[in-house]
Amino acid sequence: MCHTDHTKSFNLVTFVVLAAGVWRPHFVVEGHGRLIEPPSRATMWRQGYPTPENYDDNQLFCGGVGVQYGENKGKCGVCGDPWNGPREHEAGGKYANGIIVRSYQVGQVIDVSVELTANHKGYFEFRLCPTDNPFERVTHSCLAKYPLKVLPERDVKYYVQGGEGYYGASQKIHLKVQLPRNVKCRACLLQWKYNAGNSWGVDPDGTGCIGCGNQEQFYGCSDIAIGHSDVVLGKPAVKHPWLFQEETDVEWHFGIVKYNNKTTEAPPPSSSPMFYTSNCCVAVMVFHLMALFLSLPAMF
């Protein structure tokens, strides 16, 4: 008759679970947000455009708070790259391929969508820099001249509403944004800027609060044309349904937050760079931990 040591089995399970918890930060990725309509340079590959894959397209946050405000004194690239690092999402960079994704009329009210995988409160801003060359580097000073208004309030800031978003249950925000009535361009850069507001900080006047002072910032850049119907738009080749699922019943609202019960993004295969540790490595790690446990019964 087989006898099972339930105490040892329980301890083994407990040990493995705790060990997995210790190792979890090495292969779990938490996200923040991305500009999905019009698709940004970092995200358009998810919709089938022939551009390099960027699995960190929801983490264009200037290198992080420490890098942005410590090393770079508050500066950031116009598309979310670290100021002192490679500007891979700006002209000349890996993800800036000159593909125009949308064409609009002058002064048109356009649909803009942002997907948050972590709601950090705060507010969105949208800006425009008109050029006729998608390979021309855009500056913050150009973008500052063309802030866009979100309807119906016609405010340049949209304050994020709703609850907490998290990896595995994405939150989409659909907005109506007004384009300028006097701008035509063959290759405008549309910038989304997300000023988060979930951290404690201190304003210049000494006021301290959640959302005060230096906060995380997230960016996205899309290439669009305005007032030029002859511009040739890039076309998606093959869509990846496990990366991006189009909504067929979207109801566009003015500044209204909408939620999805299920994520539109699924984990990629284990070979994907999205994971720092592959499933195979995790399995080997657990095997060795179990062997260690069985060889050291006195410890438990």
UniProtKB/TrEMBL annotation:
Pfam family, any one: LPMO_10
Domain Chitin-binding type-4: 32-224
Transmembrane regions: 274-296
Keywords: Membrane, Signal, Transmembrane, Transmembrane helix
Residues annotated as signal peptide: 1-21
Name the record gives this protein: Solute carrier family 25 (Mitochondrial carrier protein) member 16
Organism annotation: Biomphalaria pfeifferi
Organismal lineage: Eukaryota, Metazoa, Spiralia, Lophotrochozoa, Mollusca
